[in-house]
């Protein structure tokens, strides 16, 4: 059994991905000569077989190198997961970062889960931050947060939908008190077609379409406008002036109230749900422990 060190395997895996000694050295904080020495040492321990073809211009994996990478990569990933989990058990989860646009939906479930999580693990905490009005998933993708509260449906290949925070939020329309639609007891998408409609900004295409379809049931196009709005205060101001029609959900309308804005039920669409979401293929035991607690509260 060769006396192979884990650091040697990590250097091999990074070089197999980069196929460049300089970039590999940069990723690992080593010198290029140390990377080269480490790879040669690994090759000797594995019977002298070459893992890379090196020329003055190119670095390529040999057949033996490709076979080793295919088998070693998932094994080291699994080992890293085991080590992170062991560290989690030993030192506690630390901080779990959650991004949300506002506190309008799912806050009861989220608040209970935070209390239970922080009570269950010594030193644990959940840090809430506000996601940008026009970039709701950006902080998650940039790994500025570990979880994000998002409207459903969400069909993004790099994001996993986690536990649901609220499953049946009523759909409503917010309009100015003097707007022609303000006197209606209820509205349908058909009623919105002749007015300037602004769907919530920053939603994915699938969530925006669920909020207000692009066409009415009779086939008429809905007249969407893309007015630049910096925050919810500006949105309320424009609604109060009668400039826009804003389809949204009841928790949002209840949270953001303006004396010159009325809220009307929107019929004919299924209720809205919001959930926690996280990046796919990112191991995080602390995040998983928190979402497990959220799941038990949302059942």
* Count of discrete domains: 3
Annotation, overall tally of beta strands: 10
Biggest beta sheet attributes:
5 strands, mixed
Physical arrangement of strands within the biggest beta sheet: 4-3-5-10-6
CATH architecture of the largest domain: 3-Layer(aba) Sandwich
Q: Under the CATH scheme, which class of the largest domain?
A: Alpha Beta
Gyration radius from CA atoms, angstroms: 26 Å
CATH topology of the largest domain: D-Maltodextrin-Binding Protein, domain 2
Structural class of the helices, strands and pairings?
alpha+beta
Counting H and I runs of at least 4 residues, what is the number of helices? 11
Low-pLDDT residue intervals, each spanning 5 or more residues = none
* Secondary-structure element string: HHHEEHEHEHEEEHHHEHEEH
- Which range does the strand content fall in? 15-25%
Task: Estimate the global geometry from the Cα principal axes.
Answer: elongated
Helix content: 40-55%
